[in-house]
Design goal:
This protein has 324 residues and is an all-alpha fold. The chain contains 17 helices and no strands. The chain starts with a helix and ends in a 6-residue tail after the last helix.
């Protein structure tokens, strides 16, 4: 019955799952945390949920979550919790193509860290800002931030931080220099639990190899990146890898995580109860979860089993060959 504590713990677990690259599990926890904490303090769960949705390719939903939680206001309070929100908003705005606003958010976070004398590479606001600045042609500022990030990451000492920083620096290089940095990024991230960051570095490496006309060499990192991104639910990254792979002359398989084996244990439990005729609300009560959690699980079930109605669910659960 300790709703506030439950919301905080779900937020933390959802954040961890996002960092590890399991966006589906992340969304489940964060939606429940957001629902539970809506009347308390929706900032952190909403921020992390918005990032998860943006990485999943559902940018409109991500922006709606920020709006619903009143996080689109021009000035956010200056404290650690809202600094997390500021970073998340920058990531979502970047995904939505709102580049200037995203840069403003990320640089404001940097200013706050400076006022608080915080020098660290997490969250990686420098890398996020550097990519956006480079795309806008501001290569001098982008390079400065990227080099700062790498220096801080080396001191911070985690493979994830170093891998992200090396990948960002690669965006400012070309040819063999960029490839060397991306190979180092992949090597670092192989030693971390950040599967989605690894996927991104693999896709960037494959794309750089393809641009250098090393098409055969590009295929393995692109396939690995595509598989990791797809397994984690990062649809835009997986689709980009598929397109890059096709450009090498390979024939990438259709991206579809379907069938009963694709269901998580939580999704299977929800599907089995709904298949008996239970409503979403009855299912939520039976499993001691919130209604939005059931709705999220059920949406994933319908996607993975390629269903269009609840009446098809029982048959799909009985026959492991259908549909797929």
């Amino acid at each position: 019955g300790r709703i506030a504590d439950l919301a905080r713990l779900l937020t933390l677990r959802g954040w961890v799952m996002c960092e590890r690259g399991d966006l589906r599990a992340s969304e489940t926890d964060l939606r429940e945390a957001f629902d539970l904490g809506l009347a308390l303090f929706p900032g952190p769960p909403a921020a992390h949920l918005a990032v998860t949705l943006a990485l999943s390719g559902r940018v409109d939903e991500a922006q709606a979550v920020l709006t619903d939680a009143a996080l689109e206001q021009p000035a956010l309070p200056e404290n650690m919790l809202f600094n997390v929100v500021l970073y998340a908003r920058g990531v979502v705005r970047a995904a939505a193509g709102r580049r200037d606003e995203a840069i403003d958010d990320l640089l404001e976070l940097g200013s706050r860290h400076g006022r608080w004398e915080l020098s660290r590479p997490v969250p990686p606001w420098r890398s996020a800002a550097a990519e956006l600045l480079a795309a806008a042609g501001e290569t001098t500022d982008a390079g400065r931030l990227a080099r700062e990030e790498l220096e801080l990451a080396q001191r911070w000492g985690t493979a994830r931080a170093r891998g992200i920083a090396l990948r960002t620096l690669a965006f400012l290089e070309a040819g063999s220099d960029a490839i060397d940095l991306l190979e180092s990024s992949v090597a670092e991230l192989e030693r971390s639990q950040g599967r989605l960051e690894l996927a991104r570095s693999l896709v960037e490496l494959g794309a750089a190899l393809r641009r250098s006309r090393r098409r055969v060499d590009a295929r393995d990192p692109l396939r690995r990146g595509m598989d990791l991104a797809h397994a984690g639910g990062a649809s835009p990254l997986a689709e980009r890898a598929r397109i890059e792979l096709a450009a090498t002359g390979a024939r990438p398989r259709r991206l579809a995580l379907t069938g009963l084996d694709a269901l998580t244990p939580s999704e299977r439990r929800v599907a089995e109860l709904v298949a008996t005729g239970m409503t979403n609300r009855e299912t939520a009560q039976a499993l001691f979860v919130t209604l939005p959690t059931v709705e999220t699980h059920l949406r994933h079930v319908f996607q993975k089993l390629d269903l269009s109605s609840r009446t098809e669910l029982a048959e799909a659960l009985e026959d492991p060959r259908s549909p797929a």
